[in-house]
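Hi there,

I know you've been waiting on this one. I reran it after we fixed the sequence typo, so this is the corrected version. Both the input and the resulting structure follow.
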Amino acid sequence: MVPRFTNPNDQEKHEIENKVRAIGSPYHVYVHTIHGSHVTGNYMMLSSKYAKEYLQRGYKTVRLLHPNNSHTWEVEILLTGKRRYRLGKGWRQFFKDNKLKVGDICLFELMESKRNLTMTVHIHLIQRRI
């Protein structure tokens, strides 16, 4: 699921589609491109459509995992006006620790867990950083 303000080029779309297929999650993988507000702000908005379908269980936090489980971040989930969700406290640390830049793409894979909301975040760096 790609939010409406994400504009990857054709090559990136192909790479992202391949990565999503490789993840093989039974849930939709949420795709989000980092843009300027993530650099200056302390939050990241989530697609209301995705949040409505997958985050409606009353969770207050989400645990973000590095794909190799080497690090985790506890990030606050906030409900804003009009049923909009955003990642708040903890997002900035995740952003800094992963050295994200404008244009990088995060693939949020929802994980099966009965105890807490957990997402593995696969990061696709833009070409200039490879």
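Quick highlight: The two ends are 25 Å apart (CA to CA).

Best,
R. S.
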